[in-house]
């Protein structure tokens, strides 16, 4: 039985970290990759280099901020959507959706929301509500779906090295966690959470205060599965070696494998 490997990676600047991305693709060979924080407009997305690495791509860029992309090894993703329905600010490139090998892939870069309270946190919650509504529609369509990306949500206190110093952060607020919990209650499966229920799995280590060196991490990158796909979940993990590289992103790629 074969496997279908899907990864999500907040690359934090695709132009400056393209060599690291290409090294990771060559070493780990995921079938699908969701990228966030491209921080590049559409016309400078490195499509030629990614194509030479064996991947087709669709992307939704933005100058200096945000930006999302979906890569597929050996095939061209079939673009189905850029942006969430009814988004009042489509200038922020935070969602892209495509079909790959019969699976709908949604790539998410949810707003950070800091400082809170304030307009940025209000925007985060409003965006999260639109995502939840779109996720409900995807479930109703009965297609196999993966919603992967940087959710900027620490689901529980077990998903952070020490919640005390982060209590006022938007990532841990009760309203933020409520939206995430609402997705799970509607039927979506937190793949890494279900694979590792009793041990911390971190995907992000802040650049400050030696967070990486102390393994003071957070789990904010998630791969949520529709119910039919969750039955095919085999394995998962985090490619921590990527975070240990020089001039690395503050995130490491998180991945899962599904039976085919």
Instruction: Identify the CATH homologous superfamily.
Output: Endonuclease/exonuclease/phosphatase
Give the amount of beta strand, in percent. 25-35%
Radius of gyration from CA coordinates: 17 Å
SS content category = alpha+beta
Number of domains: 1
CATH class: Alpha Beta
Number of strands: 12
What integer is the average pLDDT? 97
Unreliable stretches (pLDDT < 50, length at least 5) are none
What's this entry about, in short?
The chain is of the alpha+beta class. The chain has helices at residues 18-28, 47-52, 119-140, 174-185, 191-195, 227-230, 240-243; strands at residues 3-10, 32-36, 55-60, 68-73, 78-82, 95-100, 103-109, 145-150, 189-190, 221-225, 233-238, 254-259.
Describe this structure in words.
It is a single chain. With 260 residues, the chain is of the alpha+beta class. The protein has one domain: Deoxyribonuclease I, Chain A (4-Layer Sandwich), CATH 3.60.10. It has 7 helices and 12 strands. The strands form 2 sheets. A 6-stranded mixed sheet has the order 3-4-2-1-12-11. The protein has a 6-stranded mixed sheet with strand order 5-6-7-8-10-9. The longest helix is centred in the middle third of the chain and has 22 residues. The mean pLDDT is 97. This is Nuclease. Keywords: Hydrolase, Magnesium, Metal-binding.
